[in-house]
Amino acid sequence: MQADDTLPEPDSLSAEHSARVAAHLHARIEEAGGSLSFAEFMQESLYAPGLGYYAAGATKFGEAGDFVTAPEVSSLFGRVLARQCAEVLARVPGGGVLELGAGSGRLAVDVLGSLAALDALPDEYLILEVSPELAARQADAIEAALPEMRARVRWLDSLPEAHRGVVIANEVLDALPVERFVRRENVRQIRVAARDRQFRFVESDAPGILEDAVFAIEDDLCRALARGFTSEVSLGAAPWMTDVLASLQQGVAFLFDYGLPRREYYAPDRDDGWLRCHFRHRAHNDPLILPGIQDITAWVDFTAVAEAAVESGADVAGFVTQSTFLVNAGLGAELEAEDDAALVRQIALSGEVKMLTLPGAMGEAFKCLALSKGFDAPLSAFLHADRTHTL
């Protein structure tokens, strides 16, 4: 993978922070005997305490950050999602909302405000956030926009034992560390080493857990991956999903992320995987540069997530594109409510809808997987164009 020459230069403070993260990674590589698995490198780059991308204080979301998520694009995303949450909460008396990784806090603000307008406000809105810095920003955002709601919001550092109601995870799965592999005569693990203080990829024999995962993918595809085929597999997705669903006693989990069913994920023409990095709103494919100040993500194998969910005793309640979710769940009604808005607002809304729904923007790349436990009522967002059969 090569660096993108079009990437902007980091400012001096960011560059200094990145140098500290690089030093930390070099030390970890030396401690490990010369290399780290890519999953370990990604974990340290994103989550090392006080250093990692999500553990330090840099702005990540919105125009001043490195990428924009759907809630930052438009309040319409949260408002429509709230409508779907209200359907669930109406059938789970006493249920609440649990948001996993609340980012800037914008989604919580929009969902809470809309649930109040729908007379469906739960007693409690829980946020599980691993970053103290982000938790503080979320609290500030809620206090500024909805001070009357602040008492309903509670932050957690671990999953609740028995949650009932709704679970929301928007762009969480893509940030779980992934292993990279290359198919040779056998399965090879791609690791990160250092030479002349520069990070580089090296190969080694794959550990049994990674080899077994790749063989299981090939068995499901009914074909071997081509020699030289390089991709990713998230060994942490299934345990994460198991933990989330163990916490969910009754209700529905809505998982939004960019991803694909397994047959598309490991299609022959996707022989360099789905790893993507984001820095100052530029997407590129070199995770070895800008350590600690760029986001590292991988598209989601939604088949693997659904399999883990079913093994955990949950049901797949639906699988749709983000565009389909929004249209089915009430985007039209939200737009009708804006009919009397000024022309400037109407023009802005048009742009927001295009970004959220068009295939060339977020509409097709992003999917929503709904998983249910003890809940069998139909959900509006999945009544049409459900793609569960593709998983």
Overview of the structural elements:
The protein has helices at 12-31, 38-47, 70-73, 75-91, 106-117, 132-145, 208-221, 237-247, 262-265, 302-311, 322-329, 331-336, 343-357, and strands at residues 36-37, 96-100, 125-128, 153-156, 163-170, 179-183, 187-195, 198-205, 230-233, 248-260, 275-279, 282-284, 295-298, 300-301, 315-321, 366-373. With 391 residues, it is α/β, with parallel strands linked by helices. The chain has a single domain (11-373), classed as Rossmann fold (3-Layer(aba) Sandwich), CATH 3.40.50.12710. Strands 2, 3, 4, 5, 10, 14, 15 and 16 form an eight-stranded mixed beta sheet that branches. Strands 1, 6, 7, 8 and 9 form a five-stranded antiparallel beta sheet that branches. Strands 12-11-13 form a three-stranded antiparallel beta sheet. It is globular. The model has no long low-confidence stretch (mean pLDDT 94).
